[in-house]
Design goal:
This protein is of the alpha/beta class and about 290 residues long. It folds into 2 domains: about 5-100 and about 240-275, Rossmann fold; about 105-240, NAD(P)-binding Rossmann-like Domain (Rossmann fold), CATH 3.40.50.720. Helix content is about 35%, strand content about 15%. The strands form 3 sheets. Strands 10-9-8-11-12-13 form a 6-stranded parallel β-sheet, with helices on both faces. Strands 2-1-3-6-7 form a 5-stranded parallel β-sheet, covered by helices on one side. A two-stranded antiparallel ribbon has the order 4-5. Helix 7 (about 220-225) links the parallel strand 12 and strand 13 (about 230-235). Helix 1 (about 15-25) crosses helix 9. The chain is elongated and about 60 Å long. It starts with a strand and ends in a 25-residue tail after the last helix.
Length: about 290
């Protein structure tokens, strides 16, 4: 692996741990949480997840153009949840399979923390619905089962229902909810509308609804407010509840992608400028740090 000089810009505690992790492996790192340094020479740029907020690099008032101007035109640049306008220049680590897989566990653990804080009872013996059997659903549902909860998982495919039952869980169909919605808590992992106003009205008044999906989420929060249901949106949990783990995941995913790019495209001076995925494609129940 080529040792690089990294500029790490913006973001939250995840990116601070990513910077520290790169330094621990021997790379030269300039970590700038909120502004660009006056001067410096770097041959790689690591940016936050999400890449931008209100038109600037998240956590800063720095424009993307100003950030990109600090590295050579053929230097690797990585960020998360990259807007389409920058998809040809910035590799999106949040859309890489390894990132999604490894973030499922800290997301699931963060969800359990929120459930423990917001339920007025133990998870042991609680009746819970997990909507979606993607990466997060597959990580979360067995953990809840092992804590003694009665767990139902909803999905749309029969193959998923069979896997759900094989894990000792109850299966239902997302959208139809033929088993009813009489749960102590419902956790959504699907980044698409799955609990509309009519469906929310079928939940019991004390039900706690937790939306882990990225914006705009899958639960009608206005309906929850109107009906007096407690509802929380919690995308990006790894960065809030396990920033060290989340940051080291970013580091490892980026370095793995760089290594593959260097091997596969050794003839290309800037393989990282190639898009790693269609930025308009929806994420699958994963979502989400």
């Amino acid at each position: 692996m080529i040792r690089r000089s990294w500029l790490v810009l913006g973001g939250d505690e995840r990116l601070r741990w990513a910077a520290r992790g790169l330094r621990d492996l021997g790379d030269d790192v300039t970590d700038c949480p909120d502004t660009l340094p006056a001067s410096g020479n770097w041959d790689a740029l690591l940016l936050p997840l999400p890449l931008m907020t209100d038109g600037t690099v998240t956590g800063t008032e720095v424009s993307m153009e100003a950030a990109l101007a600090r590295i050579p035109a053929d230097a690797p640049c990585y960020g998360g949840r990259v807007p389409e306008a920058y998809a040809q220049r910035v590799r999106d680590y949040s859309r890489m399979e390894r990132f999604a897989l490894e973030n499922a566990i800290p997301t699931a653990e963060g969800a359990i923390e929120l459930l423990l804080r917001n339920l007025d009872r133990t998870l042991h013996g609680a009746s819970l619905l997990v909507i979606g059997f993607g990466r997060i659903g597959k990580a979360l549902a067995p953990l809840l089962r092992d804590l003694g909860a009665a767990v139902t998982v909803s999905a749309r495919k029969q193959a998923d229902w069979e896997q759900i039952r094989a894990l000792g869980l109850t299966a239902d169909e997302t959208g139809r909810y033929e088993l009813g919605l009489d749960y102590d808590a419902i956790v959504n992992t699907v980044p698409a509308p799955v609990l509309d106003a009519a469906t929310v009205s079928r939940t019991k008044p004390e039900c706690y609804l937790l939306d882990l999906a990225s914006a705009p989420g899958g639960i009608d929060d206005r309906a929850c407010d109107a009906l007096g249901r407690r509802c929380a949106s919690a995308p990006g949990l790894p960065g809030k509840t396990a920033p060290r783990t989340a940051g080291l995941i970013i580091r490892d995913v980026v370095l793995d992608d760089l290594s593959k790019s260097e091997r596969m495209f050794s003839w290309n001076p800037s393989p990282w400028a190639l898009p790693c995925a269609d930025p308009s494609a929806p994420m699958n129940g994963s979502s989400p740090p």
